[in-house]
């Protein structure tokens, strides 16, 4: 029974120690349409501070749309989205507030090609946060060191490998000091040998206590890092569970089919 699988989580044993009691993100009864197409169907999801969520599911199931709604890259039509205590409404002040708290990393990096790595990282802190240039550069270098590419600071994105570009994208997000990081298939455009260097950065971030929602099909990552794995299909959350029961004892036939295709 699908709903039982979904509800089961509520009864789970105590949360891991890195998960705080406070709610960081809450979606309640969220529905979204693209024209006539009902893309998100009654999404309910609570993410607590420090929690790491992996979202998986077939292509077209609404994973990107769901996480893009969380920082208003897409607009939902029904339901409530709350981020760090602020409701996502048409109020521009709220949207701005939420975007400051939420970092996002995309499949295709989305770096500015005409800016250097360092300039990519300092642009928003300088222009959005009004940070002095020197301070923004110091912070950027700190994060470029964290993602292990300080030596690439003065290059342009096109001169970097895909794995390096994605690490720049992560560093750029971190420069805004986000409370939550959203990852939308951050490794799926990468050559296999570069996947690990990006996942390693994400794992480190998780261990530093970052609240994360990661859309990914890297099931090794999900097993080691996720507190909860969420499976979406047809615009719905079909099943969610801790990684161990999710992978070893999936409840829904759709989850079983999906896992049989990717594992
Ligand atoms: P996923 O990330 O799980 O692959 P998406 O959220 O990207 O799924 O897409 C879900 C569905 O919505 C797909 O059928 C897709 O074609 C459709 N879709 C996505 N973006 C748009 C859009 N801007 N306009 C119309 N349909 C869209
Ligand atoms: Mg997607």
TrEMBL record:
GO terms for cellular component: plasma membrane. The gene is glnQ_2. Keywords: Amino-acid transport, ATP-binding, Nucleotide-binding, Transport. This is Glutamine transport ATP-binding protein GlnQ. CDD domains: ABC_HisP_GlnQ (cd03262). It is found in: Cell inner membrane. The lineage of its organism: Bacteria, Pseudomonadati, Pseudomonadota, Gammaproteobacteria, Oceanospirillales. It is a peripheral membrane protein. Pfam families: ABC_tran. Residues 25-259 form the ABC transporter domain. InterPro entries: AAA+_ATPase, ABC_ATPase_HisP-typ, ABC_transporter-like_ATP-bd, ABC_transporter-like_CS, MetN_ABC_transporter-like, P-loop_NTPase. The keyword tRNA processing does not apply. Gene3D superfamilies: P-loop containing nucleotide triphosphate hydrolases (3.40.50.300). One of its GO terms (molecular function) is ATP hydrolysis activity. Belongs to the ABC transporter superfamily.
